[in-house]
Design a protein that fits this description.
Layout (H helix, E strand, L loop, with lengths): L7 H8 L42 E2 L15 E6 L5 E5 L6 E3 L2 H11 L2 E2 L4 E2 L2 E6 L5 H13 L4 E8 L2 E6 L13 E7 L6 E6 L2 E6 L3 H10 L7 E5 L6 H11 L7 E3 L2
Parallel strand pairs: 1-8, 2-7, 7-8, 10-13, 13-14
Antiparallel strand pairs: 2-3, 3-4, 5-6, 8-9, 10-11, 11-12
Helix pairs in contact: 4-5
Length: 262
Amino acid sequence: MKRLLVGAALLLAACSGGSPANDIPQTPLHNTLQAAATAAPEAVFAPASAAAGIELPVVQADHLPLATLDPQAPWMALCVRHGAAMRARAGGDAAWQECPDEQSVTKLLDRHGEMDFDAGHSTLQIVLVVDGRAAWENVLAVLELLAGQRVRRVYALAGCNKGTCLLDLSLPVGESPPPGQVAALDISGSGEELRATLVLDGTTREFAGARTLAEIAAAAAGASSAPALLRLRVPRTAPAALFFAALEAVAPSRFAAVSVAA
C-alpha cells in the first residue's frame, strides 16, 4: 500500500493565517509526516520553515509511537491555535474552513467520515496541528469531541529530530491491557513548582521542581519492560507544549500507545 505524504507547510501555513495552501510552491519535501522518509508519487509541499504564528511542539521522536496516514482512508486536519478559533481542512478540499464552535467541527466530521460498523468507529483520520502555546484544555475539548463522534485515529504534528513527525494519539478501543502493562504519568503545577507522579514497573515515584521532566526521563530509561499503554495527564490550563514535553520525557520507557487523560 502506498503511503500518503502530507506537506507540513500545507497545514501550518493555513493554521497561522498565512497564504493559502495552493499558493505554496511544490518542491521536494524534506520534512515528511512519517518516521522513515520514503519516496512516493503523491504531490508534496515545501517544508514548514517559514510558517509564521505557529509554535509547533518539538520532541525527540526516538521511542515515541509514530504514524503514517492511510491513503485509502479519509483524513482531516484540525488546527488548534493560540487565542483563535480552530480551522479545519479535509483531504481533497481546496480551502480551509474557520470553525468557531464545536457544532461546526461536528458537521465536518459527519460529512467527511464514515462509520466502520465492524470496527465500531469512524474511518476518518484526524491530524491535529497544535500551537504549543494553546491552552491544553482546548486540545482536550477536541479529543472529547472526537471520542463522542467515534473517531479514534488521531495524530498530532510535532517538530522532531526526523524533521516533522506524526505522533500517534489514537484513542484506545477495546479492552485495556492488564494493570502491570499500564504506566501512568500525572503532571501538575509549572516551572519550579512542577510536580509529577509516575507509575512504572509497578512502582510509584514522586517528582518535584524544575528538573522534574529530566528525572522522569532517567526513571523511564530504567524501565524493565515496555508498557503497552501510557496514561498521561497534564493540567488543563497548561500550554499544550507541556503535554508534548511530558510525552517526550517518558518516551524512554518505550510505551506502545498513549491515552490522554482529562
